[in-house]
Amino acid sequence: MTGLPYPNAVPPFVYASRAQRVVFGPGSLRGLAAELDALGLKRALVLCTPQQRAQAEQAAALLGAPRVAGIFDQAVMHVPIETARQARQAASELGADCAVAVGGGSTIGLGKAIALDSGLPIIAVPTTYAGSEMTPIYGITEAGLKKTGKDDRVLPRSVVYDPELSLALPAAMSVTSGINAIAHAAEGLYARDGNPVMDLMAQEGIRALARALPVIAGGADGDALRSARGDALYGAWLCGTVLGSVGMALHHKLCHTLGGSFNLPHAEVHTVVLPQALAYNAPAAPRALERVAAALGAADAPEGVFDLAKSLGAPTALREIGMREEDLDRACDIALQTPYPNPRPLERAALRALLQDAYEGARPGRA
């Protein structure tokens, strides 16, 4: 028949790819020196948190003494500007021509802060599921506000994904880090600049993490744990690619606000806020939420994320992770400043209600 729209027609879109090398697989850390060779780099400053010093030393040993400028082990959450300045100075004084960031979002974020100022290339070795390694997005906290931006200089030139490095990641941290990654994909599905390629990656990333996290949290060991860790890291790569390729929306604005201005733990904030943010956007993005639900194997996306977190013992309320109820009004005010594009317009009363639900850990109702 004529005059009827073609079902499921692909809408116009723009897709931009970025040059980045990814090495994935058990034991891939052993090829770290080859990654420096491939990029023509000679001398690395190895970055880590104080808690991950042993993994940084492992990476340094694989590189060998002549190729290690030093180890800077002071990475912390939300990249305070003071820490970024110290790391930049260390890289300069030690004569590093690159940074190797071993860890999660805090460490990779510190590497980005160095690159933003100096252009020093980064090789990322992720040990959590944060996804920052796949993005040109940076965040630096100064004077109590987390400022974010995009700059291709901060995109890691090479990413080494070794599931063996995440075997010892505590189950609770694995769960919140994984749901953090799911948040990137979920918001990518209703991004203003989304495209079919990212939609596919988002759905597959959510599916892989939803499959892996219950196995990890359930105390599996041996081959089952190794397979689940590989699945989770694969999902994190896909979700991180989505984060780096399309714009984020209300959920990420809220998490940047709560983390940067109230010093709440990054992955836990994402875990708590995501079901509430999805419920807020559900009326304006029904197709995206159907895809999230299908990838989770749930009837409803907000409820599915909430139930996944709760079943795996993750926090579901802001009050559980250090938020004070008297700060909710201020958080709402900050979140309304320079808002990110969002499928549903931001309304102060509705946003304040969202934050209250997140504070209390209310199970989101079906839209």
From TrEMBL:
Alcohol dehydrogenase iron-type/glycerol dehydrogenase GldA domain segment(s): 20-163
Domain named Fe-containing alcohol dehydrogenase-like C-terminal: residues: 175-359
UniProt keyword list: Aromatic hydrocarbons catabolism, NAD, Oxidoreductase
Swiss-Prot/TrEMBL GO biological process terms: 3-chlorocatechol catabolic process
Reactions accelerated catalytically: 3-oxoadipate + NADP(+) = maleylacetate + NADPH + H(+); 3-oxoadipate + NAD(+) = maleylacetate + NADH + H(+)
UniProt-listed CDD domains: MAR
Coiled coil: none
Enzyme class: oxidoreductase
Keyword Oxidoreductase found: yes
Top-level lineage group: Bacteria
Stored InterPro entries: ADH_Fe/GldA, ADH_Fe_C, Alcohol_dehydrogenase_Fe, MAR
GO molecular function (one): maleylacetate reductase activity
EC number(s) recorded for this UniProt protein: 1.3.1.32
Statement: the UniProt record of this protein carries the keyword Oxidoreductase: yes
A matching Pfam family: ADH_Fe_C
Family: Belongs to the iron-containing alcohol dehydrogenase family.
PANTHER family, A to Z: ALCOHOL DEHYDROGENASE (PTHR11496), ALCOHOL DEHYDROGENASE 4 (PTHR11496:SF102)
Name of the protein described by the UniProt record: maleylacetate reductase
Source organism: Achromobacter veterisilvae
Higher taxonomy: Bacteria, Pseudomonadati, Pseudomonadota, Betaproteobacteria, Burkholderiales
Gene this chain is encoded by: tfdF
